[in-house]
Amino acid sequence: MSRPIFQGETIAAIATAIVPAQGSVGIVRLSGAEAVTVARRLFQAPGEQRWETHRVLYGYVVDPQQGITVDEALLILMLSPRSYTREDVVEFHCHGGIMAVQQVLQLCVAQGARLAQPGEFTLRAFLNGRLDLTQAEGVADLVAAQSPQAAQAALAEVRGKLTQPIRQLRSACLDLLAEVEARIDFEEDLPPLDEPEVKRQLAQILESVRALLDTAHQGELLRTGLKVAIVGRPNVGKSSLLNAWSRSDRAIVTELPGTTRDVVESQLVVGGIPVQVLDTAGIRDAKDPVEQMGIARSRSVAQAADLVLLTIDAHAGWTPEDQRLYDTVKQRPLILVINKTDLGAAQDSPPLPDLKVPKVHTAAAHNEGLDILEKTILQRVQADHFTAANLEATVNQRQAAALTRARTALEEVQATIAQQLPLDFWTIDLRMAISALGEITGDDITESMLDEIFSRFCIGK
């Protein structure tokens, strides 16, 4: 069901994660014209504490119907327009856990507030002009950030680092459109259009659009991370590699082949990029039905991973099983990990073929070669120089789609000029570019698009 654009009601939601016996503080947030009225009905502040904006009050949340004290809490008042939503905002800072915040939220609803929809607080901030759409999406990215670099890139969006260049590009397109339309409407009263200057400005705008589009891949890596599968035949040290890399004992390590029966996961950060490392069951011809299920999952994970670490045993050399595995995954982005180098090659071990893939030598049992492995991974995803310092803001998938439409429209304008078509044809594609750029910041947006964007937010944000 589509959310209403007009938000006249007072909304309430739990604004912090709630977990049993976890967290010292839980927050219930209200926003809207009746937020303070609801708070006054529920909150008893002893003494002569003043109910003024941006003040913290101490007291108790009391059920007005039963006269029962629900929690000892702090109350923060942020009155319009100096609040996140530019409406009156009230926050109850309760004890953490589950019961206190849920009871306070229920009391707020009983006093006339409505449960907020996902992202509704940020939607109101957008509709009331406090944030543009790129800043609003930056808020969601900041909440979901899995690394310091991802958080820095999201914070840059919140601070308008993406808004400014997009609005400048849209303004430049509007100026060009005005120049062209003026020649159409008042051709006899104005000097001829400076076509070389129009071409120069178009080329400059296109260059900026393409530069922003170039950040889409890095932005996707920051937001969603990289899925890396460790694949190999049994007993080549895959689990040891995972344990050494993650500095934990996530996977069981024994001398017996086939110990790993299912996919074991670990979350790491490599060069600022979140990495989900998947240790898979050793792939071989197995009769045990449980091991067969693990092997089937391993094959599936390898095909779905962004990067495969094909791991072999340096002591045993290149075996027929390694060759079969390589033939299975060679179409995937691949790094060959030659593990157990501390044991040296056996006298009769088959030599490694001349494979055209990056190779890394490791001794996972001694934590050797892991730094080179990380550098190779970054190079494999073309992100070895990727840091928050040289990448202030990145575009997400939605923004990249709009930028692509803008780029296509601007290229069509260039083609129209080259074909010497009438000025009316120029304006068609210029308007399309302006509309696409407006979608990014929210200057040109539909209700259905807003509904889709904000439905991905958490409830209390």
Question: Would you write up a description of this structure?
Answer:
Helices cover 43% and strands 17% of the residues. It contains 15 helices and 13 strands. The protein has helices at 35-42, 99-110, 120-127, 133-144, 148-158, 163-185, 195-213, 216-224, 238-246, 289-304, 320-329, 370-380, 397-418, 423-441, 447-454, and strands at 11-14, 25-31, 43-44, 55-63, 68-78, 89-95, 114-115, 226-231, 264-270, 273-279, 307-313, 334-339, 359-361. The chain has a seven-stranded mixed beta sheet with strand order 3-4-5-6-2-1-7. It has a six-stranded mixed beta sheet with strand order 9-10-8-11-12-13, with helices on both faces. The longest helix has 23 residues, at 163-185. The model is unreliable at 1-6, 250-262, 282-292 and 383-390 (pLDDT under 50).
